[in-house]
Specification:
Radius of gyration: 23 Å
CATH architecture of the largest domain: 3-Layer(aba) Sandwich
Number of strands: 13
Largest sheet: 8 strands, mixed
Distance between the termini: 61 Å
Shape: globular
CATH class of the largest domain: Alpha Beta
Helix content: 25-40%
């Protein structure tokens, strides 16, 4: 039976490689559509938890994982089982290395694990963000080495993930899916696969185009966030509330989209993806000044915020050295447990390096995770009036819905707001 027939009959087995913030929602959607799903990961604890019907992601319910397991889902660390799968979807991280250059080691190591098991009538899709050309430059040689011909007996596509963790308004099923194929037949197979569990498919002319689409989406956000972060500093110097300005500006029904400032940018996309294009552009003798400037502005915001804390302490005659500082939220955005590239963590590190005694409270992150550049032996503290009052300064970094903002405001000696949550209190310091 051909791959297309298996997909149409829901007999295809889908392999999801990388069971994280992208892979698990994708597995849930494809399982719900009637496919048997095999999940692959290198973390034994992640594999055991999923097979025990436990969700490793706070905003995904255990009940949803249990339903998927009941439908035949299985997580495994045995990559030789990829041969069982008719479609293999790679959803592994593509970070930057210490030199701020693309690190595709996760994609490469994953492909090396599954390539010996490639077979005819199989589809390989890469969803990890990368530069235009990666799918063909990196994956195509492995397929050729396996003695298979793309577009004839094997299908290769790139379809960028578009997950927005914690966003309840959109699901993998309702977010339009970009699909680019190595050949027309590859594109047809990719459309058939994703179209079986996603409402809207947006085909593009090539894998390179699809790769570029993802970068453009996140560069657009990075540049606009960089702009409003810079405008925040200007507005503050003029004594203006940038949040009031933006809210008024967005009443214009055309020509304006509202973006809001914060302590920087976080997550796995916006702080990282633009640099994949700037790196690739150098191959063509091009310097992406606009993109890099936005990155510099966003990266400078944690220091701007930390400096605001110093200034706030000074107004009370207090020194940063030895000051007790409580950070509210270390996740990169509200209502998620993801701390990857979180500017909140960078602010915390700066305050610690400047002599503060730091603590944090985050209802989504119970203990400070191990991170490449930051190491704190801290656990989230529970908030109450007495706890809040015991700190020299409280700084709102991630505006989770779970915080009792009125209680925090009533009991803080110094309260610094980086998210525009407090709008009508002149005693609260904007940062």
């Amino acid at each position: 039976m051909s791959l297309l027939e298996k997909i149409r009959n829901r007999n295809a087995i889908i392999g999801i490689i990388g069971l994280g913030y992208v892979g698990i929602p994708l597995a849930l959607s494809s399982s719900k559509a009637g496919f048997r799903v095999v999940g692959f990961d290198i973390l034994p604890q992640r594999i055991e938890g999923l097979n025990a019907r436990k969700s490793p992601i706070k905003y995904i319910r255990d009940a949803d994982i249990a339903k998927m397991v009941d439908a035949g889902f299985e997580a495994t660390g045995d990559f030789s089982r990829s041969k069982e799968c008719d479609a293999l979807i790679i959803c592994v991280p593509t970070p930057l290395n210490k030199s701020r250059e693309p690190d595709l080691s996760f994609v490469t190591s994953t492909t090396e694990l599954i390539a010996p098991h490639f077979r005819e009538e199989q589809l390989l899709s890469l969803e990890s963000t990368t530069w235009p050309g990666t799918t063909e430059e990196l994956l195509l040689p492995y397929i050729a080495k396996a003695g298979l011909t793309v577009g004839e007996d094997f299908y290769l596509v790139y379809s960028p993930e578009r997950e927005d963790p914690g966003n309840t308004h959109f699901t993998p099923q309702t977010i339009p899916k970009i699909v680019g194929g190595k050949s027309p037949r590859c594109l047809e197979a990719g459309k058939a696969l994703y179209g079986s569990f996603i409402d809207t498919i947006v085909p593009v002319s090539s894998t390179q185009t699809a790769e570029m689409v993802k970068l453009v989406e996140n560069i657009y956000r990075s540049v606009n966030i960089g702009l409003v972060n810079e405008l925040k500093i200007v507005a503050e110097a003029m004594g203006l509330d940038i949040f009031e300005v933006i809210d008024a500006a967005k009443t214009k029904p055309f020509g304006y989209t509202a973006y809001y400032p914060g302590p920087g940018v976080g997550g796995h996309c916006i702080p990282i993806d633009p640099f994949y294009l700037t790196w690739k552009a150098r191959e063509f003798g091009l310097h992406t000044r606009f993109i890099e400037l936005a990155g510099e502005i966003n990266a400078s915001m944690p220091q701007y915020v930390a400096t605001k804390v110093v200034q706030a302490l000074n107004t009370k005659g207090k020194s940063m050295n030895g000051a007790k500082i409580l950070a509210l939220g270390i996740a990169y955005k509200r209502n998620v447990d993801d701390v990857r590239e979180s500017p909140s963590v960078t602010v915390l590190k700066l305050l610690y390096e400047w002599g503060a005694v730091v603590s944090y409270s985050d209802p989504y992150v119970s203990a400070f995770p191990k991170m490449r550049d930051h190491a704190f032996n801290l656990e989230s503290i529970d908030l109450c009036p007495e706890t809040i009052a015991s700190y020299d300064a409280v700084i709102l970094l991630t505006d989770h819905n779970d915080f009792d903002y009125k209680m925090i405001e009533a009991n803080s000696d110094i309260l610094i707001d980086t998210r525009g949550k407090y709008r009508n209190n002149a005693n609260i310091i904007r940062a």
